[in-house]
Amino acid sequence: MVIDMIFKFLSIFIFLVLFFTNSHSKSISGDELKLLVENWLTQHNVEANINILGKVKYPKCSQENLMISDISGTNKLIKVSCLAPNEWSLILRNKINIERKIKPNNDQLTNVYALNKPKRSGSIINKEDIIMIKKKISNINGLIIEESDLVGRKLKKSVSANRALYHNSLKKDWLIEKDSHVLIENNLPFITIRAEGIALENADFGDKLKVKNLKSGKIVFGFAENRKKILLNAKQN
């Protein structure tokens, strides 16, 4: 096991040396950033499943100026920042399943999260809607055990009061949801054009989606940048 760990960290070290000592490279590709972040996650014993546009180019950044950090607290959102000479940053979504399992105990009641009143499909769960009760649970797969996984989420189906809440009762937490108001941004060589729009599809970070320009009524394709912004031109030189 010790030998395996030595080889593991040695391979990461060699990658970092090769990655940052390439003096001829004027940019970093999405594929290179993906590998760098995956190695960072591996060092922290975290499962890596990063999605990024591999052909997108980012300005060159030296090792001492490149920072990687977990901004979600659950390793789901990883921020990559370059401090100098070209200051830039981006947020990558790490699609991992971090649902924790509870050992069933048929002889005891289990503390579970439930709603204090019935709510319909599509309703948003607020903090004041949530209660903790004791119930005998036969199926613990997908049982929600963190209050933070409930607050602000939408129900996929109607749920009655005092019923144990499971992840399959919740709608997927998309970065951008269909019918939400967004800012459309088109970065041209010498000008940036912005307009208000409505997302016509659900999307995660970096996903391609259709969006409607509210002023012109035109439907265009863009890439999800954050919860409020869609980029028409995702390439950076």
Largest sheet: 5 strands, mixed, barrel
- Give the overall silhouette: flat
Helices and strands, in order, run as HEHEEEEEEEEEEE
Write down how many β-strands occur, each being a DSSP E stretch of 2 or more residues.
12
Strand content: 25-35%
Structural class by sheet pairing and helices: alpha+beta
Query: What is the total number of structural domains?
Result: 3
Biggest sheet: strand arrangement: 8-9-10-11-12
Q: Give the helix level as a range of percent.
A: 10-25%
Rg over C-alpha atoms, rounded to the nearest angstrom: 22 Å
Residue-averaged pLDDT, rounded?
80
Q: What is the CA-CA span between the terminal residues?
A: 43 Å
Number of helices: 2
What are the low-pLDDT stretches, counting only 5+ consecutive residues below 50? 9-24
Helices, strands, pairings?
Layout: H1 2-20, E1 27-29, H2 30-43, E2 57-59, E3 66-70, E4 77-82, E5 88-93, E6 110-115, E7 130-135, E8 181-187, E9 192-199, E10 208-213, E11 219-226, E12 229-231
Parallel strand pairs: 8-12
Antiparallel strand pairs: 1-2, 3-4, 4-5, 6-7, 8-9, 9-10, 10-11, 11-12
Helix pairs in contact: 1-2
Structure commentary:
This protein is of the alpha+beta class. The protein folds into three domains: 2-93, no CATH class; 110-169, Alpha-Beta Complex (Type Iii Antifreeze Protein Isoform Hplc 12), CATH 3.90.1210; 181-231, Roll (SH3 type barrels). 14% of the residues lie in helices and 28% in strands. The strands form four sheets. It has a five-stranded mixed barrel with strand order 8-9-10-11-12. Strand 3 and strand 4 form a beta hairpin.
